[in-house]
Write a structure and sequence with these properties.
There is one protein chain. This protein is of the alpha/beta class and 631 residues long. It folds into three domains: 233 residues, Vaccinia Virus protein VP39 (Rossmann fold), CATH 3.40.50.150; 163 residues, 3-Layer(bba) Sandwich (FAD/NAD(P)-binding domain), CATH 3.50.50; 151 residues, D-Amino Acid Oxidase, subunit A, domain 2 (D-Amino Acid Oxidase, Chain A, domain 2, 2-Layer Sandwich), CATH 3.30.9. The protein is 28% helix and 26% strand. It has 17 helices and 30 strands. The strands form six sheets. The chain has an eight-stranded mixed sheet, sandwiched between helices. An eight-stranded mixed sheet has the order 16-17-15-25-26-27-24-28, with helices on both faces. Strands 19-13-12-23-30-29 form a six-stranded mixed sheet. Strand 25 and strand 26 form a beta hairpin. Helix 7 crosses helix 8. The longest helix is centred in the middle third of the chain and has 18 residues. The protein is globular. This is tRNA 5-methylaminomethyl-2-thiouridine biosynthesis bifunctional protein MnmC.
Amino acid sequence: MSHLPVKAPDKAQIRFNEFNLPVSTEFDDIYFNNENGLAESRYVFLQHNDLPERWQTHSHSAFRIAESGFGTGLNFLASWALFAEQAPSTMRLHFVSFEKYPLAPADMARALQHFPELAAYAQLLINALPSPHAGCHRLQFDDGRVTLDLWYGDIHDQLPQWLPHATNTIDAWFLDGFAPDKNPQMWQPELYRAMAQSCREHGSFATFTAAGAVRRGLQEAGFAVKKVKGFGRKRDMLRGELSTEQTQPAPHSLGSNRDSAAAPVTIIGGGIAAACLAWSLCRRGFSVELLTTGLANGASGNAQGAVYPLLHAELSPLSEFFLGAFDHARQFYQQHSSLWHETGVVQLAFNAMRQQRHDKIIASGLYHDSLVRELDGPATQTLWNALPAQPALFYPRAGWVPPENLVQQLFAACGERLRVTPCAPITTMKSEREGWQLSATDGAYYHARTLIVAAGAGSNNLLAPWQLTFQNVRGQVTQVQATDVSSGCNLVVCYKGYFTPPANGLHCVGATYAREHAGLEFDAQQQQPTHTADTAENLATLQDNLQQPWTTQLIPVNDRAALRHTTRDHLPACGWLTDNLGVFAGLGSRGFTSAPLGAEILVGQLLNEPLPLGASLLARLAPQRLQDVAT
């Protein structure tokens, strides 16, 4: 399967007509009806997919809608508003939409101002919009009850990446987009066949057009098509349902009856990976048992953690993964607003090699300037006047979180669905008739039907029978007292290390990266010892890279060391080794960027949901890739 580039899709070229409504200059077509776009959306797409009546009798825990042409987001907002008002409180909405030419947030806001009844929903959507890079961007609203997957790029490029994990999952299609005579490239048999393949039993569609070629294409794909009265002055439109004999077989399930979320899931861990998994599972109705030696007592226990993407000058799977992961993490943490600090992150070009790398990233043209932009020396100092006049990359939407507090808050948000079981380190896992028998160092035994290992550096021993190769890398962070100058730091500063804004009068300076610890055993109950040499190294790196007087005046007051759990390709291990054994490990030093999306992937695989990454990239995350076949 071909691997898609991550280059930003073309921006929508629009003008606003005499009614102050958006018109595409690319297709010379309107985004919605001049008279009443919301009424048209409700009539064509909601009414003719039999919503909300179907929500009252739906046999699944989630209702899933797919759409061709996100446009202004009007159809999504209308669906969300109706769902919030009339769907059963236990049901979730999963909305998937494809868009070749994303609207700029300001243009979307201007277009949607015509619908004041949707204003609250529209503002949440606009605040959450990702940088316009090709591929999937998962957004979540209403505390996880509503999920939006935005697939940017040509729909015919994106469908082959989406469809392998979306077969037999969709309940209703909104066949939208610019009219067939204006945009014939979209209205092709490949789209209709993908619609049919993605639909589960009783899957429906509705579309504003009644074009003969569209009707015949849908019929050939297996839909029973009806022509009905169109909206307003429009004479006809099409609606229909997939013929029962055309319904695709449900994909192999990783567990029995997963849609009911009846069986509990056991997680081994206590850091950000385990917290995001527990949150995603509980939001889908699962009960979760957490076997833990302590919450946030490993690499997730530092005082501050930066959240920003990892970019390369070439089209690498690593960069593509972190694009999606960063956008999702940023929006996910917005839901926990008291703990998300969108300060921006600056990466200094402190030497010629780093400058060359930055130049290549910008010259590649792969990344939209809302994600990253290049600064010259004077511009860098406008961010904070105590920075050196060095060129830099600036990530305006990045920031930091307090890891321990965040982990605690995510677990607390799981409520009564989560049972926390303190235990000694789990050392062995033995397959048994109905799951797994787990043994701990103190001789205690535990049982799990479905098990996920998310134990960070403690995962090595547990996964040894599968011959997965990980590394444990020791890192030490130093906290320093804020001074009159350093207290003005208002963003995360990255160089060979990093320096954070003050929190409770302290900055974090980090972090060492000791690979010689890669083979060490890890006991999560024992705090890693700190070393004065590492403290000196953290401060010396800051002073050497920034060359600023204030850096020599910082006084260390605390140190913390932990083991990072890494993989040889720096991508996390995220997937299922067996039908009832999942792995979420190897998050390295960017766990707070990758954990929210990785958890959604793992839980989505368990439930056979449409997934938030393309199929080729998902294959790169599979834990089986790390098996040491030589042993």
